[in-house]
Amino acid sequence: MAGEITIDIAHRFESGVEVGASLARTIAPGSILVLFGPSGAGKTTILRAIAGLMRPDRGRIVFEGRQWFDAAVDRCVRPQERRVGYVAQETALFPHLTVRANIEYGLRAATAESRRQRAGELIQLVGARGLEDRFPRQLSGGQAQRIALARALAPSPAMLLLDEPFGALDAATRRELRSEVRGVLRATGTSAILVTHDRLEAMAMGDELAVMIEGSLRQIGSVPEVFRRPADPAVARSLDVETVVAATVDGASGGLIDLRIGHARLVAIAGPECAVGAEVFACMRAEDVVVQRDASAQGSARNHLPGLVVGIEPEGAIDRVTVDCGFTLVAAITRQSREELALVPGSPVTAAIKATAIHVVPKV
Amino acid sequence: MDWTSIWVSVRLSAVTMVILAMVGVPVAYWIAFSRWRWKFLVEAVVALPLVLPPTVLGFYVLMAISPASPIGRGYLRAFGSTLPFSFQGLVVASVLYSLPFAVQPFSAAFAGVDRRLLEASWCLGESRLATFIRIVLPLSVPGLVTGMVLSFAHTLGEFGVVLMVGGNVPGVTRTVSISIYDAVQALDYRTAGQTSLLLLAGSFAILAVTYALQRSVWAVWPAK
Questions:
Q1: What is the model's pTM?
Q2: Which residues of B touch A (CB under 8 A)?
């Protein structure tokens, strides 16, 4: 089946660091599996193993029914035969070749005519018209990354591997390229695995999110699912934000936007690419959420959401109170507050959160 | 001036340079990319001519190519002539003598190509050999030029090995350095001085042009 990948590998580096991952997923054409985790978590190792650029000690990798790697029978398909596109942070464009020649590089089997045509298509697709005859050193970071993407896509790879592709770019270019990459993947129907340590990027680009920490794959699932139910405290810490809900931008005025989450509504600060109708994630940290017994309490918070306490988890001096207010919201409050408010599961409360504490991440 | 011996030297240097370009590239490729644990032994052998007295190298080459040795016998059977004191014998000796001057710049250049470029090429479906031809070789042009120029210049100036292996046959194995030595022995300082000056100017010109070209070639290299 298209985009079906099974990975079950383990590797021990000479330094003693161990990296392993086990997952079986189908990455639908045009969609992205994000491999997220802090630097040094082993994300790149997994990606390189998939590409065939490194050989793990143990395990196997199966892609679309083909055995790419199986340590048990000493089988390791060469990267040349795996047909994956690989794009890294350092674009690794061939410095002695023009943009066009770089894009045509992987098409040697084709005729000169069809090579030229394919390169033309890709240059168009990544919006690099006019750069055909430049050399890589004459490109900006964003342009180089676009060309690297086009070069990787030219031979129509079965899957695209993106290793921190936007890491070296400034914030504005990064945002722009994220949605462009998404658009290109959709247009070409390519499945992709994207490695990133940027939480916002993981959220924005991931259809599914796999979290790696200290060399092991801890959790995999849809983006809201992983944020809602982190598998362990380390995953939760790496995600750094407790509530992530899918929302729709309903209206915008005076620098503020209205978000609709089911029946619930939130007011947040408008960011870039938050036009009316846009699908976004609303992210709220537990320490920014205030829990009140009295709905009429006055304060500066723009958002007051009536709901019911559905869970209380003690964590040191802090209690994590989960409130169902049309969506699940996590609040971190001190034990004293919880006791004074006499909160138990089932208590009716109002959750308050400032508009400025809601981080809005547009989906791409 | 002894134009005959100058011509012998230039011919010897050119032939040696061409052979070294062909032999040196595979050897340098192997040195640059092999992960064999005893690779350092091969590297040491290649570097030997740098430290060995030319007479020692010349002695062993003479032994190896004499009709008494298997190599010399094989050559005699194949070509009907012997190698010692012939131009061909000089070529064999020069190739060995100048080997490190070609192989070391070559392999340094090959190893200096960013590995990520090679991986990018493999992922685009190109074999290791195709990657070498399409990526490594073009990016190693400065190193290839350096290696070839150095092996040419080094062969031009060799003396001890030539004396041991080639003898002093005018028009065949009498190279320019030997001709200068002979001139000095004959107290013909005028000829010796003229030829020396020509050699000095020629060597300087070759190196100056090479380094000047290197600069512009290296400017094509991307800023890292």
A1: 0.81
A2: 114, 116-117, 119-127, 130, 134-135, 138-139, 220-223
